[in-house]
Amino acid sequence: MSQSEIYHKILPNPERPGHLSVNSKWLSGEGCGSWFNIEKVESRFLISRYSPDGKLECSGIFQQVIGETINLNSGYDFTYLSHCAEVNIVQNENNLKFKLISKNI
Question: Which of 2, 38, 66, 87 would suit a FRET pair with 100, their CA atoms being 20 to 30 Å apart?
């Protein structure tokens, strides 16, 4: 069983706050978790992290540095290690890594 599967069993997804995008995804964490959202901005990505109750914790412009180019119209999940400077996503069993280029907050 993967670490992600264990956390999903221990920490259930809270109800998504109404002001977050329907595309926002929950990533359970140890003792807590976060909502993540990704949007394409020209050749880069705006990634934002929110607290369980929807408070913006950090946001910035990221560049994909590892993996096939993400397809935001296909299924994907945020995975570990993801935080305000680095975000990891799994899509079609491929690991994709994004690094912070510039902070929004």
Answer: 2
Domain that holds residue 44: 3-103
The H or E element containing residue 58 is: strand 56-66
Nearest to 30 by CA among 16, 51, 11: 11
* Integer angstrom CA distances of residue 57 from 18, 36, 61: 17, 10, 14
Q: Is the peptide bond before 81 cis (omega within 30 degrees of 0)?
A: yes
Per-residue pLDDT of the chain (105 residues; tens, 9 = 90+): 555 555 455 567 889 999 999 999 999 977 789 999 999 999 999 999 999 999 999 999 999 999 999 999 999 999 999 999 999 999 999 999 999 999 986
In this prediction the pTM is 0.87
Distance, in Å, from the CA atom of 8 to the CA atom of 37, rounded to the nearest integer, reads 18
